[in-house]
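Second attempt. The first submission of Sporulation integral membrane protein YlbJ had a stray character pasted in from the spreadsheet, which I only caught after the job came back as garbage. Lesson logged: always re-copy from the clean sequence file. Corrected sequence (315 aa) follows.
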Amino acid sequence: MIKFKKRYLLYIGVILILISLIIAPKYTFEAATEGLLLWSNVIVPSLLPFIIVSNLIIQFNIVRYISIIFNPIMKYVYKLPGVAGYAWVLGMLSGYPMGAKIVADLLNKNLITQKQAQYLLTFSNNASPMFVLGFVSVGILDVGNLGIYLLIILYISSLLTGVIFSFVYRIDTKNINNTKKYTLVKSNETAFKIFDQCIIDGVDLIVRIGGYVIFFSIILSLVNLIPIDSLLIKNFLLGTVEISNGISLLSKIPNGIETKIVLVNTIIAFGGFSVHAQTASVIQNTNLSITKYVLAKCVNAFITFLLTLLFFIFI
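This time the job returned cleanly.
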């Protein structure tokens, strides 16, 4: 029933875009162009290198050595194996949807269990420092001096979300190290083949992400046509559709800078439905639930809203 509803919503979205292409081709063209420029100028150069390097780290089993660093906090705080820390850190550094991709990769390599992966997904898919400090704080809100605080709040919220959902998933500590062992690649020929495949997989993923960005940019332009009296509510809703363009619109509301920052930080934590669609794409070859992930992002967004609000109350 749930799958049917998801497919039904997808059909509606496709039909709406088709209608807009016929009725207002110029308007749709402009929205698609904005999405394409966002993808080519921001997403590709900032995300593609991380995707390829991450693929190599996992394929060559380097992640096993990295896991040693994160093993203490992952094991004793989140009841997860050390490799889970790699997903959180690289997901944090490279941004959406890299954290989800790494979780899916670790699961497919049997480095974590299904339950561990679903739990890890609740707090490992986050916005990157480049996005928060550069694009949002300096480029959109012009509050570069506050950017680092917003970033810290986002990451604290992410970690707190993980703590909260630890009571939901109740990971068995006996299964922390119950994963399949992988050996390093020995043959140079095999290594080059794997390197080529990592590049191909990276390009494939970045193109799919581009498709989602363009698709939701058009959706955003259509939603923007809905007559809503409150500009604050309207632009906040637009931000939940696609965060990059939505945040830009939210920065133009006539409210004070504190209100803008609180709402923008909340949207960043939530990710937006464009990011959720990208996340669904990177985990599609697993049995991970996108619905449970979105629920966790709602909790994450609420925590971020409260912490950002408290920041301005006590600053």
